[in-house]
Amino acid sequence: MIKFTLIENSLDSIKSGMDYLDFAEEKNCPVSYKKALLSLFQGAELILKEILVQIDPIIIFDKNSLFRNCASPLQPKIEKLYDCKSIDINGICQELKKYYPEQFKRSNLKVIQDLAKERNKIQHFAFEMTLESLKASLVKLYLMVIKPAMLLAGEKAASDTFVEGINRICFEEHAADVEEAFLNVDKRHEFVKGGCCHCGNHSLFIIYDGESYPVSCYCTTCDFEKQEIDISEFHECPECGANSVLYDEKLGGGMCLWHKCSDCVESVPTTMKPCAGCGGYLIEDKCINCTKEED
Ligand SMILES: [Zn+2]
Ligand SMILES: [Zn+2]
Ligand SMILES: [Zn+2]
Question: Which of 10, 111, 203, 230 is 20 to 30 A from 291, comparing alpha carbons?
């Protein structure tokens, strides 16, 4: 019950926060920047609570309030928990330090604490921050806090067939939607989405960053990612003819990154392996250097 509410609400808030930010930028609208901050911060708070609840639901409740309201505070009844006060953002940071020291280091926690201050200022009507620096802080909040938390929440969702109504597929679709909303803000027109050959999901984000070819790509469902791709790593795709196939060792084949190619849309790997003759590649059993065309 608690889990369902937390995951659903957090992903909704994060997604709508990103949409506000997108709108705010496009229309240069200060009110939408505020809404973006409020929604994203709320979403972050909820997803962080979710990963703490995954360890033990009582972590997110104020200890005094637990002992006051529950007959057995260490194994409280769900209905009793509704009467308890939950911990605030500082409390959340303390618990993250304790339970997830690897994922939430001091620099990650500082992002939360700095934005908590801004959020409080908004609530007291004295909000002063340049829009540029607000955007930068929100992007940081997403990358350094929300994303690692979503990853942890997703791992758990993957190990449970059903986490109270939310199953793995559903979680991953939400996560991909949130990432897309984020990229709309951060890399407007500089990315496309395709199918991932490793996991088969349509959650491969292909980033151009102003270049004419993809410079990186990553999947939000599995851990596949490739950074700093050099143009020389691309080979001709036998399906679409574009110079867009990347060899992937783990896959033992190629992956076309041209988002309009049907192989890319449908997550079909290219038959590809290293060519012993020249150090290049055999693509569908042909190497451009070594295989002579027979006619
Ligand atoms: Zn994948
Ligand atoms: Zn292709
Ligand atoms: Zn060869």
Answer: 230
Regarding pTM above 0.90, the answer is no
Domain extents for the chain?
A: 2-186, 191-283
Q: Are 233 and 259 in contact (CB under 8 A)?
A: no
- CA 117 – ligand 3 centroid, Å: 60
Closest CA to 110 of 142, 141, 88: 141
Closest CA to 60 of 105, 111, 96: 96
145 DSSP 8-state letter:
I
Percent of the chain at pLDDT exceeding 90: 56
| DSSP code for 259 | T
Residue type, 4: F
CA of 193 to the centre of ligand 2 (A): 14
Distance CA 149, CA 154 (A): 8
